[in-house]
Write a structure and sequence with these properties.
17% strand, 43% helix, alpha+beta
Length: 188
């Protein structure tokens, strides 16, 4: 039985955003949670990405993709125009997106389902690039946000009904804000 070292945050409502969120702020410093191939495999497992890798994972390529993707999403959040070279880079990553279809039988009959299996680092990046591009090409782009906790760097797509979500997670940053507000109120 594999022992889980990390309990990764999946609060982004988009797999690509969740991948970007594998770099977190800890006591004012950015901490990379994907230091090794085993960390990446653990994240993929928790993200329910089927990775049957014939070759090892190139962690450096994944982290370079994460940095480019973070820059693009930050530009969206800041309402800046995405540069053409950033779009071209994302399109290059998208070339690695591979999907195949499989016929499955159920009690209601047959259905065609799409299957994505990653056999290389490029395949993994392709899946993540597709998730980001799909979000950027939809109305969800308007609801891409950064957590309002100034000590948090996590991003998310606000899928709430009112689109007024402020925190990456109520259990962490939202709760901290409530406690801090209560402390200030009691102190004054």
């Amino acid at each position: 039985m594999n022992k889980i070292k990390h309990n990764y945050e999946f609060v982004g409502n988009n797999l690509g955003v969740d991948f970007i969120n594998t770099e977190v702020n800890v006591k004012g410093e950015l901490v990379n949670l994907l230091l090794s191939e085993s960390d990446v495999m653990e994240w993929l497992e928790q993200a329910n990405i089927d990775a049957d890798l014939a070759q090892g994972i190139d962690v450096g390529k994944l982290l370079a993709f994460r940095e480019k993707a973070r820059q693009i999403l930050s530009q969206i959040i800041e309402k800046e125009r995405i540069e053409n070279d950033a779009i071209a880079t994302l399109n290059n990553y998208l070339q690695n997106y591979k999907i195949h279809y499989q016929l499955e039988q159920s009690s209601e009959g047959y259905q065609l389902t799409n299957q994505t299996v990653c056999h290389s680092t490029a395949d993994i990046i392709g899946v993540l690039a597709f998730e980001l591009a799909n979000m950027l090409a939809s109305e969800q782009r308007a609801y891409l946000k950064r957590c309002l906790n100034p000590d948090c760097v996590l991003m998310f797509v606000d899928n709430s009904r009112s689109h007024k979500r402020r925190w990456c997670s109520m259990e962490t940053c939202g709760n901290r804000a409530k406690v801090s507000k209560h402390y200030r109120k009691v102190k004054s």
